[in-house]
Design goal:
Elements (H helix, E strand, L loop, with lengths): L1 E2 L2 E2 L12 H30 L12 E10 L2 E8 L2 E8 L2 E9 L5
């Protein structure tokens, strides 16, 4: 093509990027899939190795019998360990054993 002695060149073709939004969404989906695979692997391993289960397959040594919240940052719990019940108070200052009685006994 020639117009008054000049040649018009066609535009150079180029591919447009999807933008950084598409790359970010793609990497987000990848991270989600990897996270789900890791969680599934941990659950399978825990089940295979019986992590969290009592060692002898019987009764656990420690049982939380009851827990009550006393306020936004304090709670009281009754736990049983080797035939003794303990009354524990947990607060910002730490955990304190308030009382203990034999498991079948009266307070």
């Amino acid at each position: 093509m020639t117009q008054q002695g000049t040649t018009v060149q066609p535009a150079i073709p180029f591919k447009r990027d999807g933008g950084s939004g598409a790359a970010l969404a793609s990497s987000g989906v990848g991270v989600l899939i990897v996270s789900l695979l890791v969680i599934a692997a941990v659950l399978v391993i825990r089940k295979r190795l019986r992590i969290g289960a009592p060692a002898d397959g019987g009764k656990a040594l420690l049982q939380v019998l009851e827990t009550q919240r006393l306020g936004p940052r304090a709670l009281v719990s009754v736990i049983e360990f080797k035939g003794t019940q303990y009354l524990l108070v947990q607060s910002e200052q730490g955990v304190t054993c308030v009382a203990s009685v034999p498991a079948g006994g009266q307070p």
